[in-house]
Amino acid sequence: MAQSLLDLREVRKSFRTADGAPRRVLDGVNFVLKEGEIVALLGKSGSGKSTLLRIMAGLTPADGGSVSYRGRPVDSPVDGISMVFQSFALFPWLTVQQNVELGLEAQGVPAAEREKRADAMLDLMGLSGFGGALPRELSGGMRQRVGIARALVTQPDVLLMDEAFSALDVLTGETLRTDILELWESRSMPTRGILVVSHNIEEAVMMADRIVILSSDPGRVRSECVIDLPRPRDADSAQVRAFIDEVY
Ligand code: ADP
Ligand code: MG
Question: What's the rounded Cα separation, in Å, for the pair 24 and 28?
Fold first, then answer.
């Protein structure tokens, strides 16, 4: 049996609407991310995907239920879990190298070691030579590569990707997705579980071992679909098309 990396039980979260009334976004979410799997979390805009991811990352507290990472409760950001954001979330005044080193600084890694590890990660993400550049000097795809390098430089066990490809044009997004899958398949990243949030069914079917669908009313996991196809997958193959139809 594969170990669970993340384990969410009956997670609840409400926000106040503009008129001050509470609105329950997550209403008893149960979810497990197991070691060795890529799971895609699908759901309409506003269904609470980003909220759920932020709760898993320890960035937002849940109102109720439990969240654990390898058996330990998650109530603040934990070493071992990294997140990639749709809008890249880079610090514009810091260089690429400095942005990537940030996570290591928080862990107290000495400067020389930080530099070495950031360099290696920039190489891996196809950004060698760009360490001194500022984010605004890069294309969207390259900025997201920096976002991913920053997430991976701490050697996370779990990678949470919140619509990481949706701000990019189709081709750039596909290239980056393929690169991530190659690193995963070749074990070039230490990461043992990936959760990709998406609203793109094809992207989910291309990447995931399992697709989980979040419904908005009430905010719960509605259904699951296991994609038992080896990667890399061909987007035009009959099998991939059949899974896309099934998820619809
Ligand atoms: P998704 O990522 O699936 O589009 P979100 O998790 O971003 O959904 O948002 C779910 C709902 O929660 C939305 O209605 C959103 O407006 C609301 N929401 C999210 N974050 C906050 C917040 N910090 N304050 C108030 N409402 C929020
Ligand atoms: Mg979102």
Answer: 10
- Measure 43 CA to ligand 2 centroid, in angstroms: 9
Distance (Å, whole) CA 82 – CA 105 = 14
- For 118-176, the pLDDT digits (tens) are 999 999 999 999 999 999 999 999 999 999 999 999 999 999 999 999 999 999 999 99
User: What's the CA-to-centroid distance between 14 and ligand 1, angstroms?
Assistant: 9
Say if ligand 1 is within 6 A of residue 51 CB. yes
Kindly indicate whether the ipTM for this predicted assembly is greater than 0.95, answering yes or no: yes
> How far, in Å, are 8, 23, 46, 121, 133 from residue 216 at the CA level?
17, 11, 7, 37, 41
Nearest CA owner, ligand 1 atom 18: 15
CA-closest candidate to residue 64, choices 22, 26, 15 = 26
**Residues with a beta carbon under 5 angstroms from ion ligand 2:** 49-50
- CA-based torsion, 49, 53, 59, 62: positive or negative: positive
* The model's pTM: 0.96
Q: Is 46 in the pocket of ligand 1 (CB under 6 A)?
A: yes
Say how far apart CA 50 and CA 132 lie, in whole Å. 31
The verdict on the CB of residue 93 being under 6 Å from ligand 1 is: no
Q: CA–CA separation, 67 vs 74, rounded Å?
A: 6
Q: Which amino acid is at 198?
A: S
Q: Is 82 in the pocket of ligand 1 (CB under 6 A)?
A: no
